[in-house]
TrEMBL record:
InterPro entries: ASCC2, ASCC2_CUE, CUE, UBA-like_sf
Biased composition, class Pro residues, residue ranges: 398-407
Domain of life: Eukaryota
Biased composition (Basic residues): 676-690
Positions of the CUE domain: 330-373
Protein name: CUE domain-containing protein
Residue numbers spanned by region Disordered: 386-407, 490-510, 584-697
């Protein structure tokens, strides 16, 4: 049985640094030749020999591992690009043409590194999709083994700083993004999701490590929306994350969780909403609503993971030819370093050496000293010089003014400005013009004209009369101030309000008259039968009370309250009695007079009452029986001391109802003596007696 020649795995970076360039080139040639044998083999031979090819998984795994890690020690020349292409073709043939590929060719690490090396390859996605259809069982078992390894590593302490754990999670993330079926296998069950959530909430988790975890779960959940769609599993996983984050709990902590980071930093909810809009589901819509509210609460804890867009600065590729001197401006220093040791070498030859050895002058010097240059470099002209830099040819633009001139607009004359002062007479202009003698003068225009001549002249009589009548017609008599000489409030009499005043004043006067009439009706009933205002149920149900309620248009509580307040106000009783007396003295059928009370307008200092309330001062009426006498006199103009009338009353006797008693009057009298310093004398006398300065007389 013919077997393929074995392939040696790619050495580690430490070993590669010790391999000379010639030996490394030989390794590349050997790998390309051996891969070519496998690719050029017939289908029958390939199926027989490839099934037992144990070296291909080791070679491909090592190559993809170092390439995906971005190892800078790997060369990037034409041979490296050719080897990269051959590796992809060999991998595709092994996984698609064989029903039972060699052990390790379907390993999840190899597939993950393969996706990292060719992330945007449509051929890779097609190949892996076909491989899933052919080897679903093997790939599924590898994914389950990967889940177990990742969960075990995450359970250890300081797993967030372990580079092996981070690389394994990244491999699974990229593999699930290229092959959604692998993402669906990752989301099968809840153990993997719970482990990721616990690792996210661990105290030692860094932000970079959390981003890796969120990316892995996001790719896995999004894969559930791809064919074949598994919406039920997606909703179950989201509900599990919601329960772990205690969303909606009364004592929910406001801290970043895996769910909050997932919905705030990605477009998972947008994708789910689009799918539910096409195929509505009540369970999913309710979940979306709750997650949206949770997203608003947690928005301040996260930011959206978005790749920064490259700003177009307008720096496109120049169409001018590249100048050699400008291109090798940095290399000229390296060229001079080599030429200092080998002055016979031309600058162009040294530049080719720098291009071949990646701008490493030490390596060039070593190969020149050992005379171990490759054949393609040895055949070059060592004295070749770079061409002299030429001035770049630019198509000069014609000089333009700064800023560029704009085409002058068509001149349109502006309209003539007009205002109300156009016809005014300019005195200065008149003084300079020849018409000044007819329009400008000092004193009377016609010194010979007299008043008699003006009165005798009837030529302008009609025009003047028409002007006067026109002015009178435009005069508005309402512009003058209203005459308030005979206002009701100042006169105190009954004036018909319909002749003047506004509607508001008429309404107010009508309401006042209505209130006075109701109060008169209530007081008459109070005087005739005080028991009618009793606060008991029998009185409220009586016929007289019902009649009084209809007449006064008041409720029982209002009537009883009015009687209670009236009993506490003797002055009000006196006023109502006076009103009844005046009504009785009026003519029959004339009705109540209802003359409004005029309050005095002169200033009077208020005096406190006995009970602490401010009552009428000494100058006001202290009762209805008091007269308007002088200094306490009983009648108008009297000057006695004991009267109860208006004025500064005498010592004894109360004026009338509502007059303060003797003790209160004496107290007020003592208080008023403060202006005459009597209290000062009394206090000094008390101090003297306290010192023993004198004996009581």
């Amino acid at each position: 049985m013919a077997e393929f020649p074995p392939l040696a795995p790619v050495p580690s970076p430490a070993v590669r640094r010790t391999i000379p360039s010639n030996d490394w080139e030989a390794c590349l040639d050997a790998w390309m030749a051996l891969l070519g044998i496998r690719l050029n083999a017939s289908d029958q031979r390939f199926k027989v020999a490839a099934a037992e090819d144990a070296s291909i998984p080791l070679f491909l795994g090592s190559y993809y591992q170092y390439t995906a890690a971005g190892d800078s020690s790997l060369p990037s020349g034409p041979k490296a690009r050719q080897l990269r292409k051959l590796c992809f073709l060999a991998t595709r043939r092994y996984i698609l043409d064989l029903s039972n590929p060699p052990d390790g060719i379907m390993d999840w690490r190899l597939l993950g590194d393969l996706c990292c090396c060719y992330p945007a390859s449509a051929a890779l996605k097609t190949s892996l999709s076909s491989a899933w259809d052919l080897h679903q069982g093997k790939i599924t078992s590898n994914i389950e083994r990967a889940k177990a390894i990742v969960m075990k590593n995450l359970s250890f302490a300081n797993s967030s700083s372990n580079p092996e754990v981070i690389s394994d999670i990244r491999r699974l993330t990229i593999l699930a993004s290229v092959l959604p079926a692998c993402g669906q296998e990752l989301m099968a069950g809840s153990d993997f999701l719970d482990t990721i959530s616990e690792a996210y909430q661990s105290k030692g988790a860094r932000d970079e490590f959390r981003k890796i975890l969120v990316a892995n779960i996001y790719v896995g959940l999004v894969s559930l929306l791809k064919e074949p769609v598994n919406l039920s599993a997606l909703l179950d996983q989201l509900f599990s994350l919601k329960a772990a984050a205690r969303v909606g709990a009364p004592k929910m902590k406001k801290e970043p969780t895996l769910l909050s980071d997932l919905i705030c930093s990605s477009d998972l909810l947008i994708r789910l909403e689009k799918y539910l809009n096409i195929q509505p589901q009540k369970r999913g819509q309710d979940l979306i609503a709750s997650l949206r509210s949770y997203q608003v609460e947690s928005k301040s804890l996260h930011h959206r993971y978005q790749r920064r867009k490259k700003v177009d600065k307008g720096k496109g590729v120049s169409s001018d030819p590249i100048v050699s001197g400008e291109l090798h401006a940095h290399k000229m220093s390296l060229v001079t370093q080599v030429q200092d040791l080998f002055p016979d070498l031309g600058s162009a030859f040294v530049v080719r050496l720098l291009d071949f050895y990646n701008d490493n002058p030490e390596t060039i010097v070593a190969h020149l000293l050992d005379d171990s240059l490759p054949l393609e470099l040895q055949s070059l002209d060592r004295s070749e010089q770079l061409p002299l830099p030429e001035e770049p040819h630019h198509s000069h633009l014609p000089p333009q003014p700064t800023p560029p001139t704009m085409p002058s607009p068509n001149f349109v004359p502006l309209p003539t400005r007009k205002n109300i002062f156009d016809k005014d007479v300019d005195i200065a202009e008149l003084s300079r013009s020849g018409e000044a003698q007819g329009k400008l003068h000092f004193g009377r225009a016609d010194a010979d004209q007299t008043a008699d001549a003006m009165l005798a002249d009837h030529s302008k009589h009609a025009a003047n009369k028409a002007a006067i009548l026109s002015a009178l017609a435009t005069f508005d008599s309402d512009d003058d101030e209203r005459d308030d000489t005979y206002d009701t409030a100042d006169v105190g009499g009954a004036i018909d309000g319909a002749t003047g005043g506004t509607d508001g004043e008429a309404d107010a006067a009508q309401r006042d008259r209505r209130a006075a009439d109701i109060e008169t009706v209530l007081f008459r009933a109070y005087k005739s039968n005080p028991g009618l205002f009793a606060r008991d149920s029998a009185t409220r149900r009586s016929q007289p009370r019902a009649l009084l309620k209809r007449e006064a248009e008041m409720t029982d509580e209002a009537i009883e309250g009015w009687a209670l307040m009236l009993s506490r106000d003797p002055k009000r009783i006196a006023k109502l009695e006076d009103r009844l007396a005046m009504d009785a003295g009026g003519s029959v059928g004339a009705g109540p007079l209802n003359q409004p009370e005029l309050r005095p307008t002169s200033y009077r200092r208020p005096q406190p009452r006995e009970d602490g309330d401010e009552g009428p001062d000494e100058g006001e009426f202290s009762g209805h029986a008091g007269s308007r006498g002088g200094r306490g006199g009983g009648g108008r103009g009297g000057r006695g001391r004991g009267g109860g009338g208006r004025g500064r009353g005498g010592r004894g006797g109360s004026g009338g109802q509502g007059q303060p008693d003797t003790a209160a009057s004496r107290q007020r009298k003592e208080e008023n003596k403060g202006s005459r310093a009597n209290h000062n004398r009394r206090q000094q006398h008390a101090k003297k007696m306290a010192r023993g300065g004198g004996l009581p007389g």
